[in-house]
Amino acid sequence: MNFRTGETMRTALFVTCFNDTLFPGTGRAMVRLLERLGCTVDFPLGQTCCGQMHFNTGYQRECVPLVRRFTEVFEGYDAVVTPSGSCAAMVREYHGRVAEVAGDTRLAAAVRHTPPVYELSEFLVDVLGVVDVGAYFPHRVTYHPTCHTLRMLKAVRQPPALLRAVRGIDLVELPSATECCGFGGTFALKNADTSVAMCADKVRHVLGTGAEVLCATDNSCLMHIGGALTRLRTGVRTLHLAEILASTEDEPASAPRTAEGGAHR
Q1: 125-144 pLDDT, tens per residue?
Q2: 247 and 25 Cβ atoms separated by less than 8 Å
Q3: Cysteine-rich domain: which residues (predicted)?
């Protein structure tokens, strides 16, 4: 999809249950950013989970009502934008598989007609055609490419391009950036020792950059790494890409953060 200035696009925010529950500020930042760029963003109140956690844990049939709900809630929009590479990947890559497992031809047809779902950086760069979004963030930042954004969406160039265009930023490369942080949803619960070891490696690389802020496109991974950074009292904070891009001189990004708790604040 290519968008041109002057066109009207019906855009919906799929905030994801993780962000809605723990990091609602990311959704608010997305809306501020997109509206600043001239977009009108709807937030369908009927949205629920995309089913990723269920699907990845082996409960594929239990995903069917969630997939059906997704197709109904977002029907009629031109584009759906989300602050989660992992949830975008679930919708794009696996909703069709859920319908196939269920043997539901009507659901399969509905999935095929679901509006395109974009992770935020994809939408900005590939749909709106924007790299410089007018952001200002005078801090030393390093970027962690989360696994789903990197490997499933193949959104390799978009986040760094957007960050490089931010005024005042000192963007430094993260060593071994493509290594998983160890979160992996339920993986971190089922394989805690391995997850902690992987996170320790990631933290070591982050600290080696001297960055003030670690940025990514998924708050789930940022929460995992950020927890370790906080426990070690490193002083390094984590911010979602949306919050850095929404930051301006008049309305700078928030102070150090943890999970915010509570929805729709």
Answers
A1: 999 999 999 999 999 999 99
A2: no
A3: 12-91, 141-225
263: left (phi over 0), alpha (psi -120 to 50) or beta: beta
- Sequence-separated (6 or more) residues with CB below 8 Å from residue 236: 206, 207, 211, 212, 213, 214, 229
- Specify whether 77 is located in the same domain as 181: no
Cβ neighbours of residue 39 closer than 8 Å, sequence gap 6 or more? 9, 11, 128
Looking up tokens 């915010």, which residue turns up?
260
CB 154 within 8 A of CB 89: no
- Does 15 share its domain with 121? yes
Q: What CA–CA distance (Å, rounded) separates 142 from 206?
A: 7
Distance of alpha carbon 119 from alpha carbon 236, whole angstroms: 25
**Residue numbers of the domain that contains 53:** 11-127
Burial call 208-217: b when 16+ CB within 10 Å, e when fewer: ebebbbbbbb
**Is residue 29 included in any domain, yes or no?**
yes
22: β partners: none
Q: How much is the pLDDT for 256?
A: 46
Residues 55-112: tens digit of each pLDDT: 988 999 999 999 999 999 999 999 999 999 999 999 999 999 999 999 999 999 999 9
- Does residue 112 fall inside a structural domain? yes
Domain count for the chain: 2
Q: Are residues 111 and 144 in the same domain?
A: no
Whether residue 184 sits in one domain with residue 119: no
Show the beta-strand stretches assigned E in 139-193. 140-143, 170-172
